[in-house]
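Appendix B. One record, verbatim.
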Amino acid sequence: MTELRQRMMDAMVQRGFAQRTQETYVQAIRRMAKHYRRDPASYTPEEVQAYLLHMVKERKLSYSSMNQAACAAQFLFQTVLGHGREQFHIPFAKVPARQPELLGREEISRLFAGCTHPGRRALLQTIYATGLRVSEACALKVSDIDSAPDRMCVRVASGKGGKGRYSILSPTLLEVLRQYARTYHPKTWLFAESTGKRPMFAEMAQRAYRAASAQAGITKTGGIHTLRHCFATHLLEGGVDLYTIQKLLGHTHIATTGRYLHLISPQFKPPKDTDPLDLLAGLRHL
């Protein structure tokens, strides 16, 4: 499958697919090839559909995982190999939208206190205070932090879909990052792995979140992406308008951001402060 894989990768590069998307698609096709043990170019639509069904029925994977494989197959067979949609139909499952379990401010304060590693704690606080995706936070460079008084922002060079944007840099987060820099002296990557030559892996950040969550006694489901959900919801509760939050999160459609309107606590009274980290200031665990 080497030649076909190269064609697929070249097609993704031409279309500006993110590196993580490229890797995900290639892995999905590789797993399908391992299942059938022959060149994917020879598969029939029925075989692709049977494999997707196998993922759910036999391997007990989620419909989201199945849809991810379906996206990879659709790109390979329809875009790279040129099969028409009607001749090579690939089904997708309708995945019910689930509301994330949000953390309250007291729980977030406990989460930070439960993260005993100062560097990992600074990363968690950065994600919560900026709303960045974990991949975006791990890819931050020192030069992406603009602390000029008339700027005070965090630059996301290449977010989801290859789109860049800016998020807020509050004075509270700036002080957190300055303390972090005095201890760890980051050079290129703000949050680097142990050698300092590469950015921190997202899996490492995810482990840090789960360890801190366990230490804090938090039993709610969800991973580090929960902090991004909390960022958006807490800003809404703080009175920030939906359009501004859309731009901070990097959403293309306002409807995507609008789902956070359903997560606002009905008992919440908006405070005057709208900085996520400052909203925790009165809590003793921070």
